[in-house]
């Protein structure tokens, strides 16, 4: 099985999909900025033309960047830094071609640009974009030297943009951890499908459980006639072996007989499965949520189950 190329833990297409809302919003805000500027300076043709050129260049860049650059397999860290530099230059050009009356639009554009930068890259380019754009724009607005309203606006936007960087970073970290857990399960399924040795299977199962889930209890059982032989039982920090249980009337028996997964989020409620009774294993503590999955192949007829002492 071929593995999709990834960038910072995500595929180019995933980056493009994630950045699309901020790209569309950026195009709309640039259009509003051009409209507001032309409405403010109806008598200044040169100023209106400069703003129109800067806005159209920005829209063109966003479209090309979204359609061709983000999804390109050659996009790398150097490309992320190049985007940060070009975006900084574009925002500063916009600030140069407008007056302080439109700085609120520039602030929104900066935040949207930072969202995209945070999605497609790590911290460095995003913070460069924030700091460089804020510093250069404040230098362009030199009239702020004698007042606080202007520079506090830019500092506030920079703070909000920094919060965006850290928030997106945390979300990406959570997503990476989830991806790692799924990859662990995928690798395990490949390995278990290629082995015929029961001891190897149990070792793989134990490693997969330890790396992929945080369960209070789990077990792996193999059907032997009317009984289930428990090859691996983990319960509240301890391992148990050489256990056998009757399948008749048990949740495991239901899973095996019906060849279906079973998820019970809250065992405080009555189990609505005819003939099923609860069977305690390990430390004989009652799980309050439980899930069992049949494990079937030419060589295996069993079940994998996990439980928690908490509901849901």
Index terms:
57% helix, 7-stranded antiparallel β-sheet, single chain, alpha+beta, elongated
Tell me what you see in this structure.
The structure is a single chain. This protein has 312 residues and is of the alpha+beta class. It has eight helices and seven strands; from the N terminus they run H-H-H-H-H-H-H-E-E-E-E-H-E-E-E. It has helices spanning 12-40, 45-69, 77-96, 103-120, 123-140, 149-194, 198-212, 251-258, and strands at residues 217-224, 227-235, 238-240, 243-246, 262-264, 289-296, 301-308. Strands 1, 2, 3, 4, 5, 6 and 7 form a seven-stranded antiparallel β-sheet that branches. Helix 6 (149-194) runs antiparallel to helix 7 (198-212). The two termini are 34 Å apart.
> What does the largest sheet look like?
7 strands, antiparallel
Mean pLDDT: 81
> Whole-Å distance between the termini?
34 Å
Beta percentage is 5-15%
> What structural category arises from helix and sheet content?
alpha+beta
Report the C-alpha radius of gyration, rounded: 29 Å
Classify the helix fraction into a percent range.
Answer: 55-70%
Q: What pattern of helices and strands is seen along the backbone? A: HHHHHHHEEEEHEEE
Uncertain segments are none
User: Total number of helical segments?
Assistant: 8
Shape summary? elongated
The total of beta strands comes to 7
Q: Topology of this structure?
A:
Elements: H1 12-40, H2 45-69, H3 77-96, H4 103-120, H5 123-140, H6 149-194, H7 198-212, E1 217-224, E2 227-235, E3 238-240, E4 243-246, H8 251-258, E5 262-264, E6 289-296, E7 301-308
Antiparallel strand pairs: 1-2, 1-7, 2-3, 2-4, 5-6, 6-7
Helix pairs in contact: 1-2, 1-4, 2-3, 3-4, 3-5, 4-5, 4-6, 5-6, 6-7
């Amino acid at each position: 099985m071929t593995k999709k190329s990834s960038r910072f833990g995500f595929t180019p297409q995933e980056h493009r999909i994630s950045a699309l809302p901020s790209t569309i919003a950026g195009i709309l805000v640039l259009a509003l900025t051009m409209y507001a500027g032309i409405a403010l300076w109806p008598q200044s043709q040169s100023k209106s033309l400069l703003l129109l050129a800067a806005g159209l260049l920005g829209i063109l860049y966003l479209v090309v960047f979204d359609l061709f650059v983000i999804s390109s397999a050659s996009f790398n860290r150097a490309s992320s830094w190049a985007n940060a530099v070009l975006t900084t230059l574009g925002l500063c050009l916009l600030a140069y071609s407008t007056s302080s009356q439109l700085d609120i639009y520039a602030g929104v554009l900066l935040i949207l640009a930072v969202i995209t930068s945070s999605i497609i890259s790590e911290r460095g380019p995003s913070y460069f974009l924030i700091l460089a754009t804020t510093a250069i724009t404040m230098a362009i607005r030199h009239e702020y030297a004698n007042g606080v309203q202007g520079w506090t606006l830019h500092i506030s936007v920079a703070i909000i943009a920094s919060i965006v960087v850290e928030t997106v970073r945390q979300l990406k970290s959570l997503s990476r951890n989830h991806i790692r857990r799924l990859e662990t399960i995928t690798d395990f399924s490949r390995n278990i499908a290629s082995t015929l040795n029961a001891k190897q299977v149990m070792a793989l199962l134990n490693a997969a459980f330890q790396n992929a889930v945080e369960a209070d209890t789990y077990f792996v059982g193999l059907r032997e006639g009317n009984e289930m032989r428990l090859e691996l039982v983990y319960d509240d920090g301890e391992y148990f072996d050489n256990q056998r249980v009757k399948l008749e009337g048990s949740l495991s028996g239901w899973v095996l007989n019906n060849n279906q997964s079973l998820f019970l989020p809250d065992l405080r409620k009555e189990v609505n499965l005819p003939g099923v009774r609860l069977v305690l294993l390990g430390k004989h503590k009652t799980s309050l949520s439980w899930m069992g999955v049949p494990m079937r192949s030419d060589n295996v007829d069993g079940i994998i189950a996990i439980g928690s002492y908490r509901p849901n």
